[in-house]
Amino acid sequence: MNSSAERKPFFKRAEGRTVFETLLVTLLIAFFLFMAIEKYSTSVKPLKETALRIELSSLRDAVTHFVLINDRLPLSLNELVSKDIIVAGSDIEGTDYQIKIVGKYVEAATLDTEGNPLDPFGNRYEYDPETGKVTPTTGGYETW
After folding, report:
1. Nearest Cα to 134, choosing from 117, 121, 120, 122?
2. Per-residue model confidence as pLDDT tens for the chain (144 residues)
């Protein structure tokens, strides 16, 4: 009797898979899952850093626009998110007017429960109302 002729491939056997085959498939799935998670986590951080740079620039520009229009620094970042843009002035004849621009100083920001903007890492921005400086509170990015 030839043993190699009687042995069927594992996918045609009636008795099922062996423990070794099951373990091998489980290890392969775990390896590929680990590789996918590692690739995902390394690709997300640079995207969040880019978003942080853009949001910081936008918030700092919003503070500058607020100062130019209102002649004072905002009290908090919440004021930039909630206050409408209103430009006041007077014409040549001395008649006062106000122009309300549709929108806020900062649009489409991710906010916490108190209405403060959050950075891409999910942390609040820090704002100094005396200097108008906006910085992230996420570890490693405080000097940006």
Report:
1. 117
2. 555 556 666 566 667 678 888 899 999 999 999 998 888 878 888 899 999 999 999 999 999 999 999 999 999 999 999 888 888 888 888 888 888 887 889 887 788 888 889 999 999 999 999 999 999 999 888 888
Alpha-carbon Rg for the chain, nearest whole angstrom, is 30
What distance in Å separates the CA atoms of residue 10 and residue 38, rounded to the nearest whole number? 32
Structural domain of residue 53, as residue ranges? 16-135
Structural domain includes residue 6: no
User: Helical H runs in the chain?
Assistant: 3-6, 19-70, 77-82
Q: How many domains does the chain have?
A: 1
What are the tokens at 34?
A: 């680990």
